[in-house]
Amino acid sequence: MSAPPPDRLYNVNVVSSDLLPTPEEVKRTIPLSARADEHVYRSRDVLRAILERRDPRLFVVVGPCSIHDLDAAREYAGRLKNLARRVERSMFLLMRVYFEKPRTTVGWKGLINDPFMDDSFHIERGILLARQLLVDLAEQGLPAATEALDPIMPQYLSELISWTAIGARTTESQTHREMASGLSTPVGFKNGTDGTLAVAINALQSVRHPHHFLGISQQGQSAVFHTRGNAHSHIVLRGGGGRTNYDSVSVALCEQELAKAIKLLPDSPDAYFYLGKACLDAGDSKRAAPQFDKAIQLYGNDAKTAQAAHELLSKVFENLGRHGEAQRELETARELARLGADVIAIDISPELLEIAKANCSMSNLRYEIQDASALSYSNAMFDSVVGSSVLHHLEIEEAIREIYRVLKPGGTIYFTEPNMLNPQIAIQKNVPWVKRKLGDSPDETAFFRWPLRRLLEQTGFRDVRIDPFDFLHPKTPIALIDGLNPFGRFLEKVPVIAEFAGSLYIRAVK
Predict the structure, then answer these.
(1) What is the pLDDT of residue 321?
(2) Most Cβ neighbours (<10 Å): which of 100, 122, 139, 353?
(3) Which of 508, 476, 444 is nearest to 327 (CA)?
(4) Can you give the pLDDT at residue 11?
(5) Are 187 and 195 in contact (CB under 8 A)?
(6) Which of 63-72, 285-294, 366-375 shows the lowest per-residue confidence on average (mean pLDDT)?
(7) Which of 11-15, 282-286, 377-381 is predicted with the least confidence, judged by mean pLDDT?
(8) What pLDDT is attached to residue 271?
(9) Residue environment code for 289-319, b if the CB has 16+ CB neighbours within 10 A, otherwise e
(10) Residue 140 and residue 130 in contact, taking contact as beta carbons nearer than 8 Å
(11) Nearest to 67 by CA among 113, 102, 109, 98
(12) Who wins on pLDDT, 350 or 25?
């Protein structure tokens, strides 16, 4: 019996194969300078800081759908670099430099696969052209973003990339999740082509873990790679199913889905912190409280402890600040105590304190008689000081100095006070017979926000923010508040008109 043909079982559908230069050889041909190396390193560090919220800027990936004309790409890069300088205080710009094109069926697969766009498929030339462009961008100081499609290609180009995308067609691919777990850049996973989030969220959970997979070494040899996992991965909302999904509602829904998924990730304070924020943004302060408590325990003495507490406090107070004036202070104290805070509620009137105590009695809520202009508490005692329609009854400079004294470094204040620009309030506070008729005390006033900001800053407060809000009259029946609030919130967003709202929402940090 004769031997079977040698190719009967092997490469049946392969016409030919061509050897490529190794990654090491390509890098010797087009090396990376020390200057460009430093730029890429710093760009990645900025992106990590933004994702960790240590840097408040947005990062923006902007550029053509794909690179096909290298001269046009270089001209575009020069213009984008000029723009990047102008917006660098608020945005960190990266150029979109996509060399590989995923296809649902068939079509041009990008500069690397077919650099001359003539079906000649000179991939060896495409790799060199792509690398040279990336080196030129790095020398200019313009960070590059790309999509990782072929799992071998990062060995040729990855040290030139600052941010990597995994496309909608490959987010579900185990090969790409494993590859991303070893990439040295932050990685964005796009949601599925149908617009759903599940595949991207699953990818985030996968890519954060170690993986072991096959690849090629710098010398072009087959190798097994062992990764530690990529902690800087995130979702990219790219739409799908004929719809966009980057509107505020879609973003909120994505945050909620991420919050649910975080429960499956390892025990980390950041996970609890961001879950708490997601719950607050969804209006669920009851679920937010235990998440912040856990984050505070895990952070220990970290500065983020205070941030977690203040995120909760700010949102609670902002929501309650829209209730009728008569119930703001007691509701705020009750809600904060219910969420686990130790609360001391003060007033100069024993009678009013007794009424409050009768309406709300909790073990972690104490009532004390205090003069806000001469508090008996020690220095740096409180994490936050909160009040509603309080400061306009006091000698403001003395009260602000006392509040600053008893507040811990990094502590926050949250107040709502009447806005003197509101016509009704201006008349009420400045026309004596109107003031008497409405029962105001002679020393009551209201505030213009600009002088109040100056006073807070002169006292030593930082990050002062004072926003007009609330077009509801203080005597609006409680039953009508929920129905009227949407119209009031609409007016708060209208320029000029917003300045005449009835209240000022005041936040500042010591």
Answers:
(1) 46
(2) 100
(3) 476
(4) 87
(5) no
(6) 285-294
(7) 282-286
(8) 61
(9) bebbbbbbebbeeeebbbbbbbbbbbbbbbe
(10) no
(11) 98
(12) 25
Q: State the pairing for strand pair 503-509/407-418.
A: antiparallel
β partners of residue 243: 240
Q: What pLDDT is recorded for position 226?
A: 96
- Rg of the chain over CA atoms, in angstroms? 30
Name the pLDDT band for 303 (thresholds 50, 70, 90).
Answer: low
Percent of the chain's residues with pLDDT above 70: 81
Burial class for 197, CB neighbours closer than 10 Å (0-12, 13-18, 19+)? buried
CB-based contacts of 249: which residues, under 8 Å, 6+ apart? none
Structure tokens at 429: 């506070």
With b for 16 or more beta-carbon neighbours within 10 A and e for fewer, the 235-258 pattern comes to bbbbebeeeebeeeebeeebbbbb
Encoding tokens for residue 279?
């719950």
Are 230 and 286 contacting, i.e. CB atoms less than 8 angstroms apart? no
Work out the pLDDT band at 320, boundaries 50, 70, 90: very low
Q: Which two tokens stand for residue 315?
A: 């949102």
Determine the Cα–Cα distance for residues 164 and 233; give it in Å rounded to an integer: 9
Q: How far apart, in whole angstroms, are the C-alpha atoms of residue 462 and residue 272?
A: 27
The beta-strand segments (E) located in 227-357 are 233-236, 343-347
Per-residue DSSP letters for 414-465? EEEEEBTTSHHHHHHHH-HHHHHHTT--TT---B-HHHHHHHHHHHT-EEEE
Confidence of residue 232 (pLDDT cuts 50, 70, 90): very high
Residue 95, beta-bridge partner list? 62, 144
Written as one letter, the residue type at 284 is D
Let me know: does 58 contact 90? Beta carbons within 8 Å.
Answer: yes
Q: Is pLDDT above 70 for 479?
A: no
CB 313 within 8 A of CB 341: yes
155: Cβ–Cβ under 8 A, 6 or more apart, which residues? 23, 215, 216, 217, 218
Whether residue 156 contacts residue 29, with contact meaning beta carbons closer than 8 Å, is answered with no
413 in helix, strand or coil? strand
Residue 141 CA to chain centroid, in angstroms? 25
For residue 150, the model assigns a pLDDT of 94
CA 206, CA 54: separation in Å to the nearest integer?
25
